[in-house]
């Protein structure tokens, strides 16, 4: 079955149907498990008690009444397959070893363990009740803090600033980033619109500025502090004043979840911790690509911004390839990253900026998405309705 390693002899293979072990039930893992559920025997290995819709995390921080919307139970995701509440500790070409000591042998493997991010962007617990409790604690701390410092002017830092402003019109909000510009690679008019909206929301953006030291205390905990800042490189426009705030949040620094590959039994990750994949999303091992092992989403070295939308498109390609192979056909579906960066970046429920690939222009460019459409597509419900359908809770 496979060109490099095989799951033959698996005790989990039922007669005539291939077993697929999907490691990680985030955006990509849940989507591929669902797509394969009818045609194969799926085992989805995921330590969390519910799917975490990270795109809702920042609103969950500022709206305790809304926060539960970012969790979706797994129990109605699959009709034939099963979700195993476990963590993979090692993967080899024949299957998955679990942290509990158990073992899942499989004909096909899909690695979908994604990435972690600092709280509150991603939850640092496998329990949704505990995640909600931590969000509530941070909400209480934030409520009492007048001056908010956000480190990182990427989409997460910008969205967090917009969510805070939507709830607290009077707080002072400062975003600091050593980069010289926001949203590099995006259309100039999108970046200009973003700066205009931030100014209108009275959100102060200090680009080309680095903190000389990390703020004291934990992020998300109220404690007044002052930190010195320095301009980066030649950017004399950056303000050098000390910064005083009552609470801070770290909005940079993604960590890829590939620790279980550290034993090298399947593949050795890149220096960034990512997994090398081919254009059919097959994992490359020491002797070349495995025909029966796939990876998707933030875990992979696909050259594009790491986004849930991309992970779900990867899932579609992987599902088509595995279903073809299970029918005895060749895996021919491929994934090509778009050369055009795209994103919808709400600034609270009613504003924001975005750009999408220009599917009608034919020149392979991008088109800006105006604030009302960003709000209607995403800002209003942060795609909660779409995930309610996927998880059968609509
Ligand atoms: C605040 C925020 C907002 C975002 N908003 C958007 C957005 O609007 N649109 C967009 O496209 N992208 C957005 N993103 C990016 C998006 O969240 C990621 O790109 C996406 O989560 C990647 O999906 P994934 O399936 O690769 O992995 P993840 O969603 O990270 O899921 C990985 C899963 O694997 C599990 N796992 C980890 N280790 C193991 C293990 N050893 N064994 C078993 N399971 C394991 C984890 O518990 C997790 O459930 C946002 C990110 C953040 C932080």
UniProtKB/TrEMBL annotation:
Domain (FAD/NAD(P)-binding): residue spans on this chain: 19-308
Highest taxon in the source lineage: Bacteria
Record-linked Pfam families: Pyr_redox_2
UniProt GO MF annotations: electron-transferring-flavoprotein dehydrogenase activity; flavin adenine dinucleotide binding
Keyword annotations of the record: FAD, Flavoprotein, Oxidoreductase
SUPFAM superfamilies the UniProt entry points to: FAD/NAD(P)-binding domain
Gene Ontology cellular component annotations, sorted alphabetically: cytoplasm
KW Membrane (keyword) present: no
Family from the record: Belongs to the FAD-dependent oxidoreductase family.
Name of the molecule in the record: NADH dehydrogenase, FAD-containing subunit
Organism name: Actinacidiphila alni
